[in-house]
Each structure stands twice: as C-alpha cells, then as structure tokens.
Hints:
Blueprint: H1 2-15, H2 18-68, H3 75-90, E1 97-103, E2 109-118, E3 131-142, E4 147-151, E5 160-162, E6 167-177, E7 185-188, E8 192-200, E9 204-207, E10 210-212, E11 244-246, E12 251-253, E13 256-259, E14 262-264, E15 269-272, E16 275-280, E17 284-286, E18 291-294, E19 297-302, E20 308-310, E21 315-319, E22 329-333, E23 342-346, E24 350-367, E25 372-373, E26 380-389, E27 394-396, E28 418-422
Parallel strand pairs: 4-6, 4-26, 5-7, 5-26, 6-8, 6-27, 7-9, 8-10, 11-14, 12-15, 13-16, 14-17, 15-18, 16-19, 17-20, 18-21, 19-22, 20-23, 21-24, 22-24, 23-24, 24-26, 25-27
Antiparallel strand pairs: 1-2, 2-3, 3-28
Amino acid sequence: MHKRAKFLGYLTAxxxxxxxxxxxxxxxxxxxxxxxxxxAVEMSHSSSVQAKLQxxxxxxxxxxxxxxxxxxxxxxxxxxxxxxxVAAGASNQDLxxxxxxxxxxxxxxxxxxxxxxxxxGLGVAAxxxxxxxxxxxxxxxxxxxxxxxxxxxxxxxxxFDLEKLARVEAPKCAVYSNSKAANGMEARDSAMLxxxxxxxxxxxxxxxxxxxxxxxxxxxxxxxPLSSRPAPKFGACDPSKQDLxxxxxxxxxxxxxxxxxxxxxxxxxxxxxxxxxxxKDGPISLQKNARLQGTDVGLYFTGAxxxxxxxxxxxxxxxxxxxxxxxxxxxxxxxxxxxxxVKFEISSDDASLLLGTIYLPKGQLFLGGDKPVAQKSAYxxxxxxxxxxxAGPTLVLNSDYSASTVPVPQGVGALSNDVALQR
Length: 423
C-alpha cells in the first residue's frame, strides 16, 4: 500500500505540472501529425499526377479525333496516333501508365482511358498503399462526315440533279444541297446517290431514282466554304496564247494567260506543264479523241464564256498543284462574274483522274458521259453552283486524303469538321 500510494503521488504531481502536460500531448500527437503531413504531401503528388495524366488524355483524344476525320482512317491508325501522343508527353514526366482507347460506333468519338500508379513514397512509413489514378477523355468530330460535294444555289429546283442511270458514289463523305426548293435534289430514271450523309436545305424528289441514305431535310445553308480563297494574280493577255487551236503530236502548254481559251483538235494529246493557267473569256474545248493531261496544274476561269466543253470520245487527266496560289484547287472559277451557271461539261469517256478540288461558284458542272469519273483519284471535292449528271456517268468521290500530297483546302474535306472535347 505504501508503494502504491507513493506512485500515485508521483503521478498526480506529474499531471499537475503544465510543462509535463505539453510534453505528453506532443509525444502522443506526433505520430498523427506526421501521418497527416505525409498524407497531405502524397495527396498533392497524386493530384499533380492526375492533372498531368488528364492533359495527356485530352491531347490524345483530340489528336486521334483529328486523324479520324480522314475518310480512310483505320481504327488501329487512329488509336496509334493517340498512343504516340501519350508516350511522347509522358516520356519526360516519369509517368508509368496503362492505355486504353476506343472509337464510337458512329465513328465520331474517340475515348481515351489512362491509369497510373502514384507511388506512396514517404506514405509507406505511414502505412499508405499506392494510389491508382484513372482519367478519361472523349473528343468528338463535329459536323458529320467530311464534305466532298456542295451545290451552292439556294433557290433553283434540281440544284443537285441526277437522271438516266447517273450515279454518285461518296460512301465516306457528305453531300449538301443549299436549294430551298421542294425538289432541290432530284434522282430520276434509276439514278442513285450513295453517301455517308446527304443534307438538303429544301426537299428532294425521287422519280424512279434512289438516295442512300435518305437525305436530311431543312438543313441549314452550307456557306460557301471557299469564298474567301483569293484568286491568283495575273496580268494582260499573252498574244502568243490567244484563241489557240492545238493539233499534232507531242504538244505541250506552259502556264500563262489564255485569252479566248483553247481548242484541242482531233487525235491530239496535250500535256500541261506544272503551274497556273488563266482561262479568260473562252472555254477549253476538246474534239474527238483529243486528250488533255497534266500534273500540278491549276485552271482559273474568268469571264462569262470561260468554261469546259469536253464531249464524248475525249479524255482528261489532271492533278491539282501542291503549293502556291492554287494549292489543292484543280479548277477555280472567278466568283465575281455576273453570269450564273456557266457550263463546265465533262462528257469524256476517260476522266478517271481529277485529283483535287473543283470550285465553280457561278458554274454548272455537267457530267454527261457513260463512264466512271474521278475513280482513280485519291480524293475529289466539288463545290459548284449546280451539279447535274445525265446519261449514265458514275462520279466517284473518294476521300482518301492521306494518300495524296495534294492539300485539301480549308473548309472542305476532312478539314471541314471541328474537333472538340466532350465534357
């Protein structure tokens, strides 16, 4: 009893001593304070890792969605782009991560999932396990399929008109008609339009023809996507290139100003040297068995009579310039002329290569042959006041943009679609 009473006395004295209380409380609280501090440090670290990971996921999703705008993009290629973006971004950040990506069934969204282990570091001493961080990013291609054909006329009927077995094959791109007429688009007499997406500002009429898929109606007007494209600069007519009539063998043309256009006589093959050709106040006309060919060629048409007159038994093979004032533009009509519906007729038996963009804001593109058109082109894009086909041609609007070094003008093709993160 004596020892016990003595011990209790010591204990009472200790607890009544203020300095002893502070020391005891500090000693008891220290492990908790250390744990709290470690947790705070680790949470700050994990937040930093999560922010970095989210940035990588966002960048990868957007980059992959942009790749998907290409009409020929394969899933493996799209996701490979995303993986490369993440790998490049993580290489200098010492991030160990796992990657998973997917493409939406409508091919308009890309989702990227990234997981990472945030090392507990000092937290191991406090009994903390590794933290698993997961982030997700989804990017969406806005505006549907790449644009490969636009009929600009807003009021006339039959702005986009197919008849007599004519066919348009645009399986990976979109076709637009701005006409608000009830029959702004027509397909008659077994004609057919096949596209990824068809949109009419007005209506459509099927008189024994087929639209696949059925056009969306009452669509917003598709603004002229190339209206701001500046025309090439040129001077006065070249007397040596005026009202030319070409015949013989081994005929070559050089870039310049061709006033009155030019005519290629029967059985004559004409090769256009690379560059820009100004066709002023007259058409390009081909007679029987004549052929016009050229690579890196841009045709600029100005004046009410400047058009194309390519009847049957002729051939045409052209690719647009890769650089310069008409980069990506195979044909470019002066939009300031007063006359509408200048005729650009291609009824050739062989017009299999028309690589680039055909822009005829005041023109009527008329295809009247019975053979395929543009089917050997990596891509062909048409923006015209009217697009009309008759007598059985098949216009093939490929959209294999990455297969060619000819650039696609801003506003059409894959670049007509924006990409945005979906939150």
